[in-house]
Design a protein that fits this description.
Metallo-beta-lactamase, Chain A; four-stranded mixed sheet
Length: 196
């Protein structure tokens, strides 16, 4: 089961997968996400970040501390999250990132289907879960993520979305769980083409 949490203000949508593992995807930037999590579970096995921007990773350190769980991110973005450097864009949100104590590369994570989807950032990922794609800021219900931030690349984004569309058709994906806004469906790929 996937539960959508958060999504308030500038913070991202947070997703909680309750299955064999309790997985928190993109905790966001507000501590009140913990109250929402507690409505469903008192255990988080691990966190997956779809990319390293502050609005997705801002409270990683709190989740790590409260639930004693590892934090995963694409291998290319481990150093950005660990060092809280300019690529995380904390200053854009008038904030400062407190990095988690331990950040692990997504390549070390098993039992979760990860698709590398560079474009919004060079380490953006999508998680395939049952009949859904959790796309972070790669693909929204009615658009795509920006590519004008550090490590963004519009050509890579175009390629990633084309690849996701192919996978969505092959795997009969029904739901697109984006990093911001409403949950969508495969029509999201048609809307994306208007921006690419």
């Amino acid at each position: 089961m996937i539960v959508k949490l958060g999504g308030f203000g500038y913070s991202c949508n947070t997703y909680l997968i309750l299955d064999k593992y309790h997985i928190l995807i993109d905790p966001g930037m507000y501590a009140n996400i913990i109250d929402e999590i507690e409505k469903y579970t008192s255990k988080i096995d691990f966190v997956i970040n779809t990319h390293c921007h502050y609005d997705h990773v801002g409270v990683d350190h709190l989740i790590e501390e409260i639930y004693n769980c590892p934090i995963y991110i694409d291998d290319k973005e481990v150093r950005h999250l660990k060092n809280a450097d300019h690529v995380v864009l904390a200053e854009l949100f008038n904030s400062k990132l407190i990095p988690p104590k331990e950040v692990l590369p997504i390549s070390e994570l098993e039992d979760v289907e990860i698709i590398r989807t560079p474009g919004h950032t060079y380490g953006s990922i999508t998680i395939l879960y049952r009949d859904g794609l959790i796309t972070g800021d790669t693909l929204f219900a009615y658009g795509v993520g920006r590519t004008d931030f550090p490590t963004g690349d519009i050509i890579k984004l175009r390629e990633s979305i084309a690849m996701l569309e192919k996978i969505a058709n092959q795997r009969d994906i029904k739901h697109i769980y984006p990093g911001h806004g409403e949950i969508g469906d495969r029509r999201a790929f048609q809307y994306a083409k208007l921006f690419l």
